[in-house]
Design brief:
CATH architecture of the largest domain: Orthogonal Bundle
Bound molecules: iron/sulfur cluster
Distance between the termini: 32 Å
Number of strands: 0
Number of domains: 2
CATH class of the largest domain: Mainly Alpha
CATH topology of the largest domain: Endonuclease III, domain 1
Oligomer: single chain
Helix content: 55-70%
Strand content: under 5%
């Protein structure tokens, strides 16, 4: 696949717009990486906003920040602690299961390979890549809904699933941007390039965007 013409220009502008000190809860955790806490916060972050992830993570880790402690925690208490992250009943079940697996199958340590991470029910490709990138500093591309939608709108790729997006971006995005890609595109997607009706009139990379599949915009 040919590298899109303006990919470097677009990345440089977005890196300036979304500097490191404004990054998401998960990105802030990279400074002092604790693989288990990164994994748990990533599971809490699914289908919710960043501020909810932060609140739920803080409440939970004040009480239970290891697999042993989460396994021992009564389910009702766990649900209450993570309530602000939404889907709290399902997430509590996932947290319990993942913690038990790490204790029993992986000797208390979060595994460092994608295959092992994906072998734990409840951990999907995005979560696995977040853990690999943020906890173990591996050069992978964690693709969430923003990271999937925006490169398609920009016209860099034409894909239907986050898995396809990961594979295509690996071919066209220079490796020097992989580390920052998720943080930048999550912030960009939450503030400007919204899923519905993006703010194209305020967009710093509007001139480089093909606006593919954008039906309504502001
Ligand atoms: S121009 Fe609009 S669709 Fe394109 S990246 Fe910017 S906000 Fe998103």
């Amino acid at each position: 696949m040919r590298k899109p013409k303006n990919i470097e220009k677009t990345m440089k502008i977005l890196i300036k717009e979304y500097p490191s000190n404004e990054k998401t809860t998960l990105n802030r955790m990279r400074k002092k990486p604790d693989a288990f806490k990164i994994l748990i916060s990533c599971l809490l972050s699914l289908r919710t906003q960043d501020k909810n992830t932060e609140t739920a993570s803080k409440k939970l880790f004040a009480v239970a920040d290891t697999p042993e402690k989460i396994v021992r925690l009564p389910v009702k208490r766990l649900e209450k602690l993570i309530f602000s992250s939404g889907h709290y009943k399902k997430k509590a079940r996932t947290l319990k299961h993942v913690s038990k697996e790490i204790l029993e199958r992986f000797n208390r340590k979060v595994p460092e390979t994608k295959e092992e991470l994906l072998s734990i029910k409840g951990i999907g490709p995005k979560t696995a890549n977040i853990v690999l990138a943020f906890a173990f500093n591996k050069n992978v591309l964690p693709i969430d809904t923003h990271c999937h939608r925006i490169p398609n709108r920009l016209g860099w790729i034409k894909t239907k699933t986050p898995e396809q997006t990961e594979a295509e971006l690996e071919k066209i995005l220079p490796k020097k941007y992989w580390n920052e890609f998720n943080a930048i595109f999550v912030q960009f997607g939450q503030t400007i390039c919204h899923p519905i009706s993006p703010w194209c009139s305020r967009c710093p990379v509007e001139e480089y965007c093909k606006k593919r599949n954008v039906e309504k915009r502001r």
